[in-house]
Every structure is written in C-alpha cells, then in structure tokens.
Amino acid sequence: MATELFAPQRLDALHHLRSDKVRELTDHVARLAREGTPVNIGRVAFTTSLNLVSRTIFSIDLTSLGDHGRSKEFHEVITGMMEGLGTPNVSDFFPVLAPADLQGMRWRLARLFARLHAVFDAEVDQRLRGRDAGQPRKNDYLDVLLDLAASEDRKDLLDRETLRSHLTVNTTYLCLQYPR
C-alpha cells in the first residue's frame, strides 16, 4: 500500500483524479444550492472520499453523488463496521462467553463484511474476465495485486480470501480518514 498508493510518483499521477472529484463535489453542491435543496455534507463528503478510494484501487466510481441508495449502502456498511468493532462486547470481559456471541456482534459484523466482500469479488471477477478477454491494463492498485497473485513466487500468499482482506483493510482505512 505504501509503495503503490502513497508513493510520490503515484500521488502525482493521481493529482488529476483528486481535482476531478473536488470539481464534481463543488458542481454537485452548487447545483443543489441553485435548486434550494439541502446538502447532506457528511453524505457528499463520504461519497467523494469513497470514490477517490475506489478510483485509486479499481479505476471506477463505486457510487455517485446523485446515487443516494448506493452511497447510503456503503455508508451503512462502513459505519456499521466502525460501530461494531468499537462497541464493547461481553466476550471482551468474559472470553469464555465468546463462542455464544450473546450480543450478536460476530453475526452482524460477518453480514457487513460479506456485503463489502461481494462488491470486491464482483470487481475482481470483472477485472479477471477483462484480462482474459485481452482488455488493456488499468495500472491501478487492483492490477498490482492481481499481478502479485499471479506471480509464481507469491501465488500461495495472495489467494482470494487474502485479497478480500487486503482490500477491506485498505478501503476501510482510507474511508475512515475522511469525515462521514
């Protein structure tokens, strides 16, 4: 992540992307202001940050400023994960009770992670199909990870589950850096 996402040359190369997303955000807010429609600042900031992350990783926008349904879904998943991971659990104090999952934390978090992983799996599968069909590389973070997964010396280290975990950690971390 440090060498591919935060390297100075990568950040410089993605400057236009950040500028485009800020321009989209200001245009959207200006349009809503002209219409007299209230702006949910948290939602548009979250959507913009999510799209910055998804463009960097997948070369696509996972949602749009006008798509309140998909943006709301991602917002619910990310905030649900934050709340679930930050809420004290009875098994934190009494580890012997952990298998019982008395508060249903493990169950709720598993459902949230499954929703996020379904999105990631769809993007990975689409990219793999595109590669098989001879589509050009996008040279984004997913291409770097898929190249690593395909290399002989790393094939066993980067399976689908590890790829999902890696994308989950990086996406969640990057989304949490921005206001909700």
TrEMBL record:
Query: What GO molecular functions are on record for this protein?
Result: heme binding; iron ion binding; monooxygenase activity; oxidoreductase activity, acting on paired donors, with incorporation or reduction of molecular oxygen
User: Could you list the residue ranges that cross the membrane?
Assistant: none
- Origin organism lineage: Eukaryota, Viridiplantae, Streptophyta, Embryophyta, Tracheophyta
User: Which Pfam family, giving just one, matches this sequence?
Assistant: p450
Domain of life, source organism: Eukaryota
Protein name per its UniProtKB record:
Cytochrome P450
> What's the family?
Belongs to the cytochrome P450 family.
InterPro entries in the record? Cyt_P450, Cyt_P450_sf
Identify the PANTHER family for this entry: CYTOCHROME P450 FAMILY PROTEIN, EXPRESSED, CYTOCHROME P450, FAMILY 76, SUBFAMILY C, POLYPEPTIDE 5-RELATED
